[in-house]
Every structure is written in structure tokens, then in C-alpha cells.
Amino acid sequence: MKKKALFFPIAAAVLAMGLAGCGSQATGEKKAGAKSNYPTKAITMVVPFAPGGTTDSAARALAGLANKYLPNEQTVAIVNKDGGAGTIGMNDVVQAKPDGYTIGMATSGPITIKTHSKEVAYKPEDFKPIIQVVATPNVLVVKSDSPIKTYEDWLEYVKKNPNKFTYGTSGAGLTQHITMENLMTKTGVKVKHVPFKGGAPALTALLGGNLEGALVQTPEAIPHIEEGSLRPIWISGTFKPEELKDVPLLTEKGVDVEPDVWTGLMAPSKVPDDVVKVLHDSFQKALEDPAVIEQFKKIGTEPVYKSSEEFQKTIDNDYKENGKVLEAIGLK
Which first-to-last residue range defines the signal peptide (predicted)? Predict the structure, then answer.
């Protein structure tokens, strides 16, 4: 009887502990769930260039399917804030509240080139990389009725006519501009730069007869090349898109100039790591979605993924290397 009497208090105590444990576990689950409550409203994605370019098109492809993978089926709204070669839009991202509700679709120019200027108020360390989504080479294009048909034609023309060849880019001090400045240093040619607020406006000016050429990301030029209105002359980058497999890389012509343009999502540096992880994981899934891959294919590119950590290493390296180029050509 005594053993039986002793059993019930012990059993009751064990039961109480079990219930307490369940309660603690439930509370813990609720706390864990509190982090996953992000996002509870729409996210703003700032695109620092005009609508229609590669950066804008890639951003819209991802944003269009973001609600499929973001917690709580939240959506992403695109805001184009062009100007300052991408720095105006990225400055808005830096100054945004670090809560994960304002992020930017950045490219290498505003982050690793323009930040060497005292005129830009932010530095690369003011951002926290989320995910790289694209890397593309650049291509020099002319109108299809131009007498320039090959790299050799172009080189001969610009050597004989210093500063006569006008070329448009998506902005002063961005990858395309620095690429051409670097090329001029290594070949001795002189051409005239005309900056625009994106690759699309530069191509519009070229098609309208206001320029002799344009140096833009390959996805921006490929549709015009395929329809026959533009002719590709050379590519600066580490690889060729399948559509431009017969167009020479500068390195194939003995010119050591090969920067690609990366595009990726970034947040203000003080955004919590758990929020960045939610964004990374969601956009990685979107990047792998067949519908997004198909959209990227339509704009002439494909996903080139890098994790937050890998993306940070790319940024650090590009910032260092671009600083060397800028100093060598007297633009730092």
C-alpha cells in the first residue's frame, strides 16, 4: 500500500513535468515562429536603373514569383530609381530602415566602382549581400548598316579617327565605362563616352542614329541582334552566350580586358541575419523555378547563383581590382 501511495505522487510529478515540458516546447515553437513571421507586408525591391534593362528584367522575373516562396505569401514591389549610374537607387537602400522591407537589385558598378569616388556617400560594407542571381558579359554593338563589321574594322576606324566613335553605356563609372577606359589604356585608341540611365536608353539612342555604338550587357543587345537591327563587334567578359558564340572575346584578340557584370540582391548592413536568410532561401528557390529560368532565357541570360558568403567574396575582390584599374587610368 505504501508503494502504491508513493507511486501516485511520483507519477503526478512526472506528468506535471511532462506537461511543463510540452508547454515550454510550445512556447519555444512560438518564439521560433516569431522569426518566421517575417515578412508580414510587401517588400520593396529598388532597381537603380531605368525599366527595360537586364537588371530590371531579372528583378521583375524574380519578383513575379517571389510570393510563391516568401513566408506568408508576401509580394515584392519593384521601384525603379535611376540616376547617378545606379548610386541614387542604392543610396536609398542604404538609408532605408534595416528591417528587410527595402532591398536593392545591385550591380557591380554602383557597389565596387562608384564607391571609390568621394561623391558617393556609401561604401560596400554598408550593404549586406543576400544572393547573386546573374553574371553577364558586355558586348559592343553598332547599327546593322554600319560599315564596321568586325573587331579589326572597329580597331582600324577608332585608331584613324580619335574620339570620333561615340558609344553609349548605362552610366558613367560603371563596368561598361571602366571596361572601355581600360581597353583604351591597353590599345592606345580614343573613343567618346556618352552615359545614359540604363542600357535600354543607350540602345534607343543608338537605334535612333544618335550614337555610333553602345557597350551594354549581352541580354540587352541580343534581341536587337537577332532581329537584325544591331551588329555585335566584340565581347568583354569571361564567357560568351550561345547566341553570340561567333563574336570574339577581347581576350581572344589579345586584349586583357574581361570583366563580367554581376547582379544580386543586397540589404542595408544592419538587417538581421535571420531576415537575410529568409530572403536568401526564398529567392534561391525562385531562381531555381523553371518559370524564372524561362524568363531569364527570354532576356538572354541564365541564373548564376552565389550564396551570401560567396557573393561577399566577389564584392570584396571586385572592389579591390576595380580600384587598381581606376587608379591606373586616373579616375580614382
Answer: 1-26
| Domain's final residue, options 253, 287, 319 | 253
Number of neighbours of residue 155 by Cβ within 10 angstroms: 17
Contact in structure between 195 and 176 (CB atoms under 8 Å)? no
Instruction: Give the C-alpha separation, 137 to 233, whole Å.
Output: 13
**Last-in-domain residue among 253, 272, 288:** 253
Report CA-CA distances (Å) from 277 to 72, 86, 239, 295: 15, 25, 30, 24
Same domain, 156 and 223: yes
Please give the chain's pLDDT, 332 residues, in tens: 333 343 334 344 433 444 344 443 333 333 333 345 999 999 999 999 989 888 999 999 999 999 999 999 999 999 999 999 899 999 999 999 999 999 999 999 999 999 999 899 999 999 999 999 998 899 999 999 999 999 999 999 999 999 999 999 988 888 999 999 999 999 999 999 999 988 999 999 999 999 999 999 998 999 999 999 999 999 999 899 889 999 999 999 999 998 888 999 999 999 999 999 999 999 999 999 999 999 998 877 889 999 999 999 999 989 998 998 888 878 77
User: DSSP labels for 46-73?
Assistant: EE-S-TTSHHHHHHHHHHHHHHHHSGGG
Residue 99 in domain = yes
Close Cβ partners of 273 (under 8 Å, ≥ 6 residues apart) = none
Q: Assign 221 to helix, strand or coil.
A: helix
3-state secondary structure of 208: coil
- Neighbouring C-beta atoms of residue 72, cutoff 10 Å: 11
Number of domains in the chain: 2
